[in-house]
Amino acid sequence: MRSTAVVLLALLALPGCGLVSRAGHEAVPVARASEPYHITVRAWGPATVTPDGFEARFDFHIVSPLDLRRNCMVQELQQEITLTRTDGQVRRRSLSLVEAFRLRLLNVDAQGMYHYGLAPGQRDRHSWAGLTEYGPEIAQVRLERRVFAYVANVADADFSDNGFAHLPRNEDGTLASTVGPNFNKAYQQRHETRGRVFYSANGLGVVYRMNYQLRRAAGENVRFFVDYGGGAGTVLAPEVVYAASR
Q1: Cα–Cα distance between 119 and 213 in angstroms, integer?
Q2: 229: closest CA among 144, 124, 142, 146?
Q3: Dist. CA 1–CA 238, nearest whole Å
Q4: H helix intervals, the chain
Q5: CB proximity list for 168: less than 8 A, separation 6 or greater
Q6: Beta bridge partners of 176
Q7: Which of these, 207, 201, 144, 152, lies nearest to 5 by C-alpha position?
Q8: β-strands 2-3, 114-118: how paired?
């Protein structure tokens, strides 16, 4: 694995938050000040990549010199798939999801640093499959997934036994969940998308990105990578194992 960001751990001198509106523009979220903390996104094993899709798993380590007083790590996921036809036409499909993982205090070390992680055994699994079902008229597929992770408080969510939940929207209402019933299907069959986010500490969050590309004209040439996309955290990208379609 490789580090793709520089550690940044500092108190933000930002006002507390809300939405900023500019004439002729939609409201945009404002980063909220919070206790200092640092998120490390760590690959959990290699990413498996085929001409049909990919699967990658991640774990998270959060450290702070103070008690964060937040019960969750929230993620804002945005995805776009671009399909290029053999005749040159391009179609795009997008989705978004706001999700939460319960946090637990792992320990306070000898230097007084607070260490947090997800529930025991919980990992964040990212995957996509079914690309081989596209007809021969699709010459190229590109999937871009952007994930913004930060700590926050969450109430009234329908958590699974291992501490995972879909949420309707983020605190500002600037991102809403639009995923269909097959996205995290096992969760959605048993749980409702509900709850609210508050006291978001998004000013020190981190963005990580996944990029998958398939070129059929090049003999099903596949490319996949994970990288750091901005923010105050660290991203440790996975090794990538390429395999034939199942």
Answers
A1: 32
A2: 146
A3: 5
A4: 185-190
A5: 98, 176, 177, 193, 194, 195, 196
A6: 169
A7: 207
A8: unpaired
**End-to-end alpha-carbon separation of the chain, Å?**
26
CA 8 – CA 29 distance, rounded (Å): 21
Of 182, 167, 24, nearest to 100 (Cα)? Answer: 167
8: its two tokens: 């940044």
CA distance 199 to 167: 15
pLDDT (tens digit per residue) in 14-70: 333 333 333 333 445 667 778 899 999 999 999 999 999 999 999 999 999 999 999
| Residues in contact with 188: Cβ distance below 8 Å, sequence separation at least 6, in sequence order | 166, 181
Under 8 Å between Cβ of 238 and 1: yes
Q: Is 69 left (phi over 0), alpha (psi -120 to 50) or beta?
A: left
170-229 pLDDT, tens digit per residue, is 999 999 999 999 999 999 999 999 999 999 999 999 999 999 999 987 666 899 999 999
Q: Give CA–CA dist 46/56, Å, rounded.
A: 7
